[in-house]
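Lecture notes, structural biology module. Today: joint structure prediction for complexes of three components.
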Amino acid sequence: MTQTTDSPVVSFDKLNKSYKDKQVLRNLQAQIMPGQIVGLVGRNGAGKTTLIESIMGLKELDSGSISVWQQSLGKLSDSQKQRIGFVPQDNIGFEWMKVADYLSYFGGFFDGWDEQYADSLISKWKIDKKARIANLSGGQQQILQVIQAISIQPKLLILDEPVAHLDPNMRRQFLAELVELTCELGTTILFSTHIISDLERIASHIALLNNGCIEYFYELEDIKQHTAHLLFDKPIENQNLPPYLINYTQLANGSKATQVRPSSTSIEELETKLNTNITATPLSLEDWYLEVTNEKHN
Amino acid sequence: MKNITSTLYIFLKQEWISVAVYFLATILFLFIIYTSGLGNDDPIGHQRITIMMISLLSLFIGIYLGSGFLRLKRSHLWQTLPHYRNNLVISFVSAAAIYGTLQTTAMLYSGWSFIIAWLAPICITLLAAQLVIGNNLIMKVILPASPFIIFQLNQYNVDYQLLLVILILFASLAVYLNYENKTVLSDATIGLMSGNMMQQLKNVRVQKFNILIATIFQALGVKYRKKDLSVAFLQPNNRYGVSSSIGVTFILLFFHLINDNQMELEGISGLMLLSILMGVLMELKLLAPQSKSLAHVYSQEQHQDFKARVLAMIERHVLVQSIVYGTLILLLNSMIEDFVEPLPLIRYVATAALSAIIFMPAFLCLSWVNINFKLLAVIICYFVTTIISFGWFYNRDTMDILFLQIIGTGILLVSIRYLSKVWWRRFSMEQFMRSYP
Amino acid sequence: MPESKIIDLFALNTSSGIPIYRQLVDQIKQAIMMGMLEKGQQLPSVRQLAKALQINPMTISKAFAQLELEKILERRRGVGMLVAQQSKQTEVPLVVSESMQKFIKIAQQHDLDNEAIMLLIQQGLSVKIEGNQS
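The predicted structure, tokenised, for the full assembly:
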């Protein structure tokens, strides 16, 4: 089952990275603990891919360090590296190979390669083993990469928008496989996506990348429990607003704001503090994401 | 070990047919060498011709292996799993060794010592592959040309054993640099064969260069629209072509300075030209399947037509480009030669243009969809032409007949090329894409 | 009830604002209250549930922990989670108490006094009873 040992699987320490004059990662700091399924979200160009590629050592950082299993990337042994499954965002790139050849060839480089499991996934997803990769659909090519990455019995799985081209059925199956992995192997998973509803099901944590750093990193259930649209029956003075309330808007008779972070102050306590009546409507994860990424700076 | 054999299998399987062609060509070479009487009364000259022939073959195979290597190198495992990197490099060297060893007999037969006969082709193959996989343009130009330069040093009575040592050093350096080059994804846009069309199109430098090239072509009176997609796809070739032209000019100049025997110059410039075209076609081969997705993006309904158009444009581009660059290289060569020993310039212009036209269709034929007898015939024709070109400078008395022969071969190749085009156009584009590469 | 059937008891709505573990807690409580889960009955393991419902196992552990704390479930070594013997649905489920509070708040916002609210509730109850009888 999920390990509960307390040393982080991946930790980011003050990462900085810029392309020309655009800073993509800004003093980014975070830790991913064993068994977590972290959903990495953020707008396009927020730096999700840069972050993911730097974990894999595909991108050089300007400063800062990343450690995996408490060792710097360069010091990981080959057998440790073989326990990291990775699906990049790019095209699969081996269009000239046949599906079966692709899997057995690349699988051969991993000690944990589970041919039977890969075969069962291939038939589950209805991919023709003898087909050339060039002839698969975009979604099938993507899932083939996923199959390759999860059939190596990974301890850490890193996926960069793995579901962008999948239909809902394939996506649901994909999520089921991820759950299977965490259950059976205690795999720690980090994946970036734009499909927030997928995360609501399987993520344990949500990391939101904004302005080059992880602005929000919470347990999914905490976000769902504590975030809400708040409707006040009168205007509130700006300096009285606690920082976890954003997007404050004055209404005809009253005002509204959104609570985007968990807080120890309950709604009742807030009511007395602000001396107002509050009506709270819980936010779905997608609403929360939209509120946070469209934050007006008041 | 298991992985090495499977990588090796991919290397060899991918171009298995080239082994057959390779054997045929070797036999043909030997046959021609011993029947044409080339250098019969001159054993040294004989040896030198053999090494030239072998180099030509090794170049051919090296480029094939290089493209295979590059295809496998595209995996992120190249960067993330040292095990994969070691495996690929070892397999690559082993494949070169296998091909190189196949040539040993031919070399031994013309009187080379065993160690040279065995190792030289391997090294030349490894160096030739750099044309495709070299880390940067300098490596792509200098390293494949280095064997020719090294063997020229024999003019100064440098021992062949010593030359072999230098050759081995160069080859080891090349392989080491390949191994050390870990960045393949991020720097994909810089190389000759980036393998990702979309990435190329996005690159700002690519776009700038593209517009520059299109403007030049327009100025030359060639109808190139600035937004011509084919120009965009082949941008790295354009850059590559220009840079290597400059590189080749320098190498030729160097030759002229150290070489008293002008016999081989046309042969060498032919090889250079050959390598450029080979690179262009290899890239075309790699990029063509991607026009499928591109066609889907840019045209919903008529993507079949669109793909056909893109491919046709790419071909036209290759034709124009190879003629321009080929002529340019040979012309420069002729002018240098003319400077050393004044001769009618017009003859060189004619030679240059002709050679370019001869080489060009031969290589377009190599990009054929399926390997078939027509292609084999063309390749054999091509090799014969090369041999005759070499022979031309030996027997100047029979020059007129040879001149006619060359024109004939050129016409033959162009017409075969045309027929093949008509032939495969009959297939649906989808089918064509499926069998490509 | 066999374990496979127990899984069918759950109807999760992942896109609502209510945390999934709370939905699980409420639905298990409801199942016990309605007699669909008997005392001493064994629940499927965290893994089985996670795989069947396709949700994160941590969420299920969290729900189980909550129910264990409320003494509705009990953990038995080597067996797993069982419905507690003395489990009595004494306390009001969280959803009910929360919606009650919400209801009262809205009523108060519309200037209803306590008597009017009580009346409303009584009316509501009688309507429901009549509805059930007819």
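Point to remember: The CA atoms of residues 118 and 124 of chain C lie 10 Å apart.
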